[in-house]
């Protein structure tokens, strides 16, 4: 968890192997023996993050029958998760690549792929609700999924800038005003 915290707080490139090993209480040879290199450690950190702190979105979507209710729940969960005092603010997957250069293009792509996969899964869920009549037939599932992704990215950065839970909950509430509702005839 120490490596997760370091990468989450500072991003991938700004954290040196020396800083990682000092924080983890191990030597550089131990890090290399256990993980191979910093990039492999980071990939494992991202996987762990997705299974723990980052799991809130999929959990919220799965807990609700409609994608609209799932997204509302997920945005509220993001407001809480992004501002928990026991870990850095925001989202690791959104913020860790901010300082990456061309030398870490594979890390940038790993994080982009994670975000894209989340948007794709959401788009499919929106399409299913359109097909089931829970959302209007003309709903653009792709655009709506991207909108939610961009809102999450903005909420993450806003939390890193110091916004509290209540402020992010207000953003989540405002975001849902853009969501199409099923019109009953």
UniProtKB/TrEMBL annotation:
Domain HTH tetR-type intervals: 1-53
Domain of life: Bacteria
GO molecular function: DNA binding
Gene3D superfamilies hit by this protein: Homeodomain-like, Tetracycline Repressor, domain 2
Record keywords: DNA-binding, Transcription, Transcription regulation
Annotated InterPro entries: DNA-bd_HTH_TetR-type_CS, Homeodomain-like_sf, HTH_TetR, Tet_transcr_reg_TetR-rel_C_sf, TetR_C
Pfam families: TetR_C_13 (PF16925), TetR_N (PF00440)
DNA-binding annotation, residue ranges on this chain: 16-35
Stated name of the protein: TetR family transcriptional regulator
Gene source species: Micromonospora pisi
């Amino acid at each position: 968890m120490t490596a997760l915290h370091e990468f989450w707080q500072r991003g991938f490139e700004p954290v040196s192997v020396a800083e990682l090993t000092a924080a983890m209480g191990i030597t550089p040879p131990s890090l290399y023996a256990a993980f191979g290199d910093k990039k492999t450690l980071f990939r494992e950190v991202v996987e762990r993050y997705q299974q723990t702190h980052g799991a809130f979105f999929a959990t919220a979507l799965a807990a609700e029958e409609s994608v609209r209710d799932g997204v509302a729940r997920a945005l509220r969960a993001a407001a809480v998760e992004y501002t928990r005092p026991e870990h850095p603010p925001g989202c690791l997957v959104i913020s860790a690549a901010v300082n990456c250069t061309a030398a870490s293009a594979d890390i940038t792509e790993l994080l982009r792929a994670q975000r894209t996969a989340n948007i794709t899964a959401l788009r499919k869920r929106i399409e299913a609700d359109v097909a089931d009549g829970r959302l209007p037939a003309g709903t653009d599932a792709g655009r709506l999924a991207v909108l939610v992704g961009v809102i999450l990215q903005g909420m993450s950065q806003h939390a890193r800038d110091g916004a509290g839970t209540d402020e992010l909950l207000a953003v989540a509430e405002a975001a849902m005003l853009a969501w199409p509702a099923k019109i009953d005839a």
